[in-house]
Structures are given as structure tokens and as C-alpha cells.
Specification:
Length: 144
């Protein structure tokens, strides 16, 4: 019995290493739409977004199917966007974000589920021990 409890405790520890947190904020985002000269969207092309004076990009990725780049300006009114395609098309320019978007920026790191980690752990342990208790109940009845 002790071996089973010890095994369950040891198996539960690595599960926290695979957890990914998620937070959702209501901050207004800045949406940049890139198009080729003929009006076609600059779709699925690489981009880099830089803070002012920074050599390291804050965000890298690819534009979406509509040629959009979306980001939340965290209090800085000026950004630099570099977007480029494999065939040499691209843009490298300064982006100005309006003050209304900056005023609504949220610096919140709360979990979107709103449930504290301790309660989740207690609930999971309750389910495990409850199932183990039912298993012991049925095994105990078979022996009589």
C-alpha cells in the first residue's frame, strides 16, 4: 500500500514540468496589414518587430493569410517592423502607435482560468485517492 502511494507521489511531480500557463488580457492590439503593390496580401511572409533602439527583435514570425502582423504596444509609441519574402520583397520602417492603444495596454499575468494552482492540485489528489479508495472497497469485498 505504501509503495503505491509513494509511486503516485513520484509520478505526480514530473507532470508540473509539462504545464503551460495561459493568460488572456483585454489590451487593444495594433494590427498592421501588409500588401504587395498589386494589392495581394503579403501572406505567410517572415517579419521581425523591434522596440526602439533594440538590436534583438521583440517578436518574430510570419504574417497571416491576410498579410497581418498583430502586437500589443507595451507603452512604447514607436516600433520598427522588418518584413521580407524569399524573393526580395519587403519593408523596413518605423511604426507609430496611437495614444489610445497605449492607454489601454494591460500588464496582467493572471491565469485565465482564475483557479489557483493549489486548488487544482488538491482536486487532482482528491480524484486519485477517491478512485484508489473505491478500488480498495471492491478488492476488500471480493476477499470475503
Amino acid at each position: 500500500m505504501r509503495a503505491v502511494v509513494l509511486a503516485l507521489a513520484l509520478l505526480a511531480a514530473p507532470a508540473a514540468a509539462h504545464e503551460v500557463g495561459l493568460s488572456q488580457g483585454g489590451a487593444p492590439a495594433t494590427v498592421l496589414t501588409l500588401r504587395y503593390a498589386d494589392g495581394q496580401p503579403f501572406a505567410y511572409e517572415a517579419f521581425e518587430l523591434y522596440r526602439p533602439g533594440s538590436e534583438l527583435p521583440l517578436q518574430v514570425g510570419r504574417t497571416d493569410a491576410q498579410g497581418r502582423v498583430v502586437f500589443v504596444a507595451d507603452g512604447r509609441p514607436v516600433w520598427r517592423l522588418k518584413a521580407y519574402s524569399a524573393d526580395g520583397h519587403g519593408v523596413d520602417r518605423e511604426i507609430r502607435v496611437d495614444s489610445a492603444a497605449l492607454a489601454g495596454a494591460v500588464q496582467d499575468g493572471a491565469d485565465s482560468a482564475g483557479v489557483p494552482r493549489g486548488w487544482l492540485l488538491a482536486g487532482g489528489l482528491g480524484v486519485i485517492f477517491g478512485l484508489f479508495g473505491l478500488l480498495q472497497l471492491f478488492i476488500g469485498r471480493k476477499g470475503k
